[in-house]
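ENTRY TYPE: paired fold submission
RECORD: A
CONTENT: sequence, then structure tokens
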Amino acid sequence: MTTPERIVSLISSATEILYLLGAGDRVVGVSHECDYPAEVAGQPRLTRSLVEAAAASRAIDQQVHELAASQSALYSIDVERLAALRPDVILTQSQCDVCAVRYEDVAAAVRDTPALADTRIVALNPHTIADVFDDLIQVGRAIGREQQAWAVRAALEARVRAVREKTAALPREARPRVACLEWIDPPMLAANWTPELVQMAGGEPGLTVPGAHSAYANWEQVVAYDPQVVVIMPCGFDLERSIVEAQVLPGMTGWNRLAAVRERRVYAADGNAYFNRSGPRLVDSLEILAHLFHPRLFRSSRAGGQQAWRRLDTRGNALVGMVE
């Protein structure tokens, strides 16, 4: 198989992998969501969202439902610009139609565009941490950097082991009950790889199942579970936007009764950069959670500091971000 010289990435996690493997100089186009590393800033943007992303959480959720009900895509592809770039390979995903361009739309663009007749599609479909590490190898193999991919994977797995070795001996009573919110209004519990991250970091994700799709929360069930830690990590939102959108939570029934609220263990996080993105920075996400759950065992996390997460105090009907 010929090593591709022109690569398009339509999923932000794959873009991060490409640059991590030293193939950034071969990237000729990316999605509108690809924002890391900084070198990607000047790349042509080949997709756009059809959802009004500046709307409030409830309105965004309604738009998504309306588009899904009409079987409409949530994102569009600039097929003319894509064709002009003549990529050898397109990296995309088939895991979530809400999170990125649909695989079917990418396949149709390639199939129906003569200039893309020789373009190969590589689709990632991760649900677990192991899947994410396998995707790293898949991307490496697709671009002729498999050896580098195995080296990067080994380094990431070593960091995971370092966390797990510290949390493995924790007794059950030392593991906090955790609820991770992937959406706020209406509330949705983060699944896929997130329950694994919680477990490895020394927490109990009692309301979610590893590898399952994220789902809307039964708020009464969340209150009954009484999480001791709440991490707010909305899909697609950075830290500041997460704090703004989280302001609806104190008005929800039973919020002030939660152990996490009483014990001041509610945190907002940059879900877009870390927890929601199925790429190498999920290991950073693990280290962040380990620090939040067990700050004496994990004195700090290497990822982002106060740009990655912030503790939120409930004051009346407001959540106030605290600088530690």
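RECORD: B
CONTENT: sequence, then structure tokens
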Amino acid sequence: MPKAQRSAPYPVVKLRAGREKSVLQRHPWIFSGAIAAWPDRLEDGDLAAIAAADGRQLGYAYVNRRCSIAARLVAFGETDPRAAIRESLARAVALRRALFDPERTNAARLVNGEGDALPGLIVDQYADALVVQISTLGMERLKPLALETLVELVQPRAIYEKSDVAARYEEGLTDAVGLLYGRDFGPLVVVENGLRFYADLKRGQKTGLFLDQRDMRALTEELAAGRRVLNGFAYTGGFSVYAARGGAARVVSADSSGGALRLAQGNYALNGFPVAPEDFVEADMFAYLRALEAGAFDLIILDPPAFARKKEDAPRAGRAYKDLNRLALAKVAPGGLVLTCSCSRFVDEKLFGQIVFQAASEAGRNVRILHRHRQALDHPVSVFHPEGSYLKSLLLSAD
């Protein structure tokens, strides 16, 4: 693994007069319109010092002039940016070690981008392996430093990169997938709240598992006793396994991917639950709900993939979310529960609430909100960067 090199002094990027307020409030993004001029000796992806129009030092950021977010801060004030990155990584790892007992949960997010003062970097730990996802050119340039520090802090068996997100294309990058450190490996078995799951870090969605829904899966376990549960968009059956441990009368897992359902069956068996093939249904969730007999389930879980991957998708996504929730609310048993989720960044919490309101109205049910999303502790959001909050969930009661 290449050693991280330090190069200084850093070119200075000056902001327009009056545009320093967000940086002083520790927001890590600087938009292109805030920048007065670019220095000559600065390439996209480089680190630069950020200064107010009057010359005050504000911090250090990596830059990319081709993007609307032209600079992302990794250090504020006078702190050297490379030292700040190492310190941010150390704080992030220490937080997770304080949060989790590895005997009960050994799959967790170690770095959550701006939530850990490391924009463009996601790091997930699965047992003794790490998965890294880099979404920006500046963090791509800083990858040697990040890897060197992670190896020192965590001493993993392997680090695998899964940088295949759309944001990379906006940054002028292509996909980067492969082993970065250590020896190659296959699917792993990890532990989450005492339950065991297969994690295919290479072929699975995101980095292997949806770690951000851990606490909502635990909520499902609390609610499941005696209920007939439908896990829509089940993927590898995380919600289903929790519901089974919670004493559900029946759990049906529906997903359009046969491969995902086979993994879901494997996770069921891994935890000692009997596998009934008829309870793992390969189907389009919209079509499945339309054909479903009303009252067949007491708890319906909807955790679909992002329907809006860019801002222009939001209107179409809104219609899809409305139809999905209308169908679920119409079909759930009287007094039943619907846990509905959205991970679309461009459908914010207010809009999602409006969509659910419209769905409830069209379903003709009296619907109450019992619970809002319980944020997974290893997915912190900076109070200075509320844009980092993307996952929304509502637990609904339908009379």
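NOTES ON RECORD B: The CA atoms of residues 225 and 247 lie 4 Å apart. The two ends are 59 Å apart (CA to CA).
STATUS: closed
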